[in-house]
């Protein structure tokens, strides 16, 4: 098993179903924006079926951990465990496909939560030049993480997510958000460098 690092400029090829799931996540991000929270939304999908959706609530809940992905995974943790545990205990080859669609690149916390909950694929819309963690090379981590590292794909409906984030930051007066806004505008100037870690099994190029 190896990981190939792809660097691309622009948007990858996604299915119509992928786009529909991300549109739902964007609606959740808009809800977060409307109530004064950071505009990030997420959707959890298991075996192609929408399980749940949610948004960021760090301001409404007055904490630093209520990210959209973390909220969603915590809420769905029993469902994910019930789906995945039988296959793990029985060591069957029937794989449960757990996918996370999010409008912003996951931070280290949300990425870790996803790995712990057997998420096999993460699709995010906009890269996060301030706190995104998906550029981590899993080969530099302990084997447990490397073995469970998901496929990570980016760029789906990036502009729509980017616009919501910019709108939020432009309306904030804190110096912190002004500095983050500069990072995002530089990202826009460069068209974004989007990263994809793709899991390949028994690749003949492995050395």
Q: Strand order within the widest sheet? A: 3-2-4-5-6
Structural class: alpha/beta
Order of helices and strands: EHEEHEHEHEHHE
**Overall 3D shape:** globular
> What is the average of the pLDDT values?
86
Question: Using DSSP, what is the number of strands?
Answer: 7
Percent of sequence in beta strands: 15-25%
Number of helices: 6
Cα-to-Cα separation, first versus last residue = 10 Å
Which bin fits the share of residues in helices? 40-55%
Radius of gyration: 17 Å
Sheet of most strands: 5 strands, mixed
Give the low-pLDDT segments.
Answer: 1-11, 193-207
SSE map:
Blueprint: E1 2-8, H1 16-34, E2 41-46, E3 49-55, H2 68-90, E4 98-104, H3 108-116, E5 121-126, H4 143-148, E6 151-154, H5 158-170, H6 175-189, E7 194-200
Parallel strand pairs: 4-5, 5-6
Antiparallel strand pairs: 1-7, 2-3, 2-4
Explain what you see.
By secondary structure, the protein is an alpha/beta fold. The protein contains 6 helices and 7 strands; from the N terminus they run βαββαβαβαβααβ. The strands form 2 sheets. The chain has a 5-stranded mixed β-sheet with strand order 3-2-4-5-6. Strands 1-7 form a two-stranded antiparallel sheet. Strand 5 (121-126), helix 4 and strand 6 form a beta-alpha-beta unit. It starts with a strand and ends in a 7-residue tail after the last strand. The model is unreliable at 1-11 and 193-207 (pLDDT under 50).
């Amino acid at each position: 098993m190896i990981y190939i690092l792809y660097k691309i400029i622009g948007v990858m090829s996604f299915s119509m179903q992928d786009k529909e799931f991300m549109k739902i996540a964007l609606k959740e991000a808009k809800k977060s924006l409307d109530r004064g929270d950071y505009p990030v939304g997420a959707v959890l999908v298991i075996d192609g079926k929408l399980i749940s959706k949610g948004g960021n609530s760090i301001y409404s809940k007055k904490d630093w951990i209520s990210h959209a992905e973390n909220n969603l995974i915590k809420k769905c943790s029993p469902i994910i465990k019930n789906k995945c545990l039988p296959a793990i205990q029985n060591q069957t080859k029937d794989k449960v496909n757990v996918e996370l669609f999010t409008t912003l690149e996951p931070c280290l916390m949300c990425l870790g939560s996803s790995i712990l909950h057997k998420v096999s694929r993460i699709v995010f819309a906009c890269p996060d030049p301030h706190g995104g963690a998906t550029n981590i090379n899993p080969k530099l981590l302990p084997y447990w993480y490397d073995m469970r590292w998901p496929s990570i794909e980016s760029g789906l409906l990036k502009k729509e997510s980017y616009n919501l984030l910019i709108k939020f930051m432009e309306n904030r007066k804190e110096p912190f958000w002004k500095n983050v806004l500069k990072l995002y505008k530089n990202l826009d100037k460069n068209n974004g460098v989007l990263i994809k870690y793709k899991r390949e099994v028994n690749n003949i190029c492995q050395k």
